[in-house]
Amino acid sequence: MALLIGLAAALVTVLGFSGARMLRTTGLEEVEEGMRTTPVAQRERGFGAFLDRLGSLFLGTTMRAYGPARLRRLEETIRRAGRPDGLTLTVYLRRQAAFVVIGVVGLVVFLLVGQPWTGLLLLLLLCGWMRLWLMSAGRRRQEQIDMELPDFLDVLGVTVTAGLGFRQAVERVCEFHTGPLAEEMRTVLQEMSVGISRRQAFIAMRDRTRSDGVAAFVTALLQAEELGVPLSSALDDIASDVRKEHAQRVRQAAAKAAPKVSLVVTMTIVPGTLILIGSSILLANREVLSGIF
User: Which ranges carry the Type II secretion system protein GspF domain (predicted)?
Assistant: First the structure.
C-alpha cells in the first residue's frame, strides 16, 4: 500500500509540473537541433528520448536557474568535451532537468516508504550525473588528443618536408586521420579560411583542448614562426618533446597506480582472507565452542 501511495504521489507531482506550459520552451530547440550529429532515427528511441521529452517541460526554468554566466561556461565545457553524442546546450539542460525531476520523484517515494537517506542519495546522484558524464567525456577526449599528437606531428613533418605548405600539409594529413585532434585541426583550418590569423586560430585550439601536449605544440610552432626556424625541423623537435612529456605522464600514472592497487588488495583480499581463516577456526573447534556456549 505504501508503494502504491508513493507511485500515486510521484504521478501527481509530474502532472503538476507539466501544467506549467509557459516555462517549458525557449525557442532555441530548432536552432540547436541542426547542430546535433546523431542521426534522428537513433535519437528518437530509448531512454534518451524519454529524458528529452521529460526535460523539455522544464527547460525554461532550468535555463533561468543557470543564468547567462553559467550557461556560457557550460557551453564552453561542452565544446571542450567535443560535443559527445551530438550534445548541445539545450540537450544537456533538458536531460539535466529530467534527471532532477526523476530524483525528486524518487525522493518522494523513498520518503513515503520510510527511507529518506536513500532518496536523498539518489537525488544527489542524479543531480550530478550529467556533469560527471560530461567531465568524464572531456577527460577521455583530452587523453586521446595527447596520444594522437606525436604521430600526427610526425606525419605532418614528413608532409611539410615533401614540399607542401603548412596549411596544405595540415589539410592533407587531416584527410587520413580521424579523432578529436583531427577535428580540432579542421576547426583551425575553417577559422583560418574565414580570415582569422594562424596565431589566433592555434591559440583558440590550445584554449579549447587544455592539453599540455597541444599547448607545447602551439607554443613551439608560434616561436618557430617568429624566429624563422624551418618548419619541418621544428615539427620533428615538437613531436620528440611531446613524446617525452607523454612518456613522463605515463610513468607518473603508473607510479600513482601502485598505492591504488595496494588499497584494493587491503580492502578486499585481506578481509576475505581473515573471514576464511576465522571460519575455518570456528568450524574446526565447533565441538569445543558448543560445550562452552
Answer: 152-277
